[in-house]
Write a structure and sequence with these properties.
With 198 residues, the chain is mainly alpha-helical. It has two helices and two strands. The longest helix is centred in the middle third of the chain and has 143 residues. 0% of the residues are buried.
């Protein structure tokens, strides 16, 4: 029974009770004292009222039954509709779980493989780069040493040559000065055209 049907049945019962109390009250007012017998008019009036009440009660029952049937049919129809929806939802959830599991496994496997490959790739080039850097540093050191040696050699040669040049220049200057000091100054005789030593 649906809650709506319960409320309807309770209302019908209350109507029946009200009708019964009204009928008893009407009969009590219509009947003469106990000494006198009921007249035909009072009997017919009570019969009509009872028939009307029964007719109303039957109509209410007829009206109540199709409503209850419709409500029961609607409830069954809703249950039938809910059941396939629940089954579909369960099937969809199962399918999603099945689809989700292999994706997770594949993703985990791919991530593990990628991490391993990246670690290997990172580890190998780091070693290679370190070796290359060490070799380059050694070559640079050798080149710097060679350059320093050659520069030092060139420096010493330049210094020697500079010293030699300076000494040679000094010697030449000194010899020139000595010659000038030794030789007397020569005077030119303009008349004869001969140089005369003083």
């Amino acid at each position: 029974m649906l809650p709506e049907n319960i409320f309807i049945s309770m209302g019908v019962k209350q109507q029946h009770r009200a009708a019964a109390t009204a009928a008893t009250a009407a009969a009590a007012t219509a009947t003469p004292p106990s000494s006198a017998a009921p007249t035909t008019a009072t009997r017919t009036a009570t019969k009509k009222k009872q028939q009307q009440q029964q007719h109303q009660h039957q109509q209410q029952q007829h009206q109540q039954q199709p409503q209850q049937q419709q409500q029961q049919q609607q409830h069954q129809h809703q249950q039938q509709q809910q059941q396939p929806q629940q089954q579909q939802q369960q099937q969809q959830q199962q399918q999603q779980q099945q689809q989700h599991q292999p994706q997770q496994q594949q993703q985990q496997q791919q991530q593990q493989q990628q991490q391993q490959q990246q670690q290997q790739q990172q580890h190998q080039p780091q070693q290679q780069q370190q070796q290359q850097q060490q070799q380059q540093q050694e070559q640079q050191q050798q080149q710097q040493e060679q350059q320093q040696e050659t520069y030092a050699k060139h420096k010493t040669r330049r210094q020697l040559t500079d010293k030699g040049k300076e000494e040679g220049d000094r010697q030449q200057r000194q010899s020139i000065i000595q010659q000038l000091n030794k030789e007397p100054p020569k005077r030119r005789d303009e008349d004869k055209g001969d140089t005369v030593s003083s």
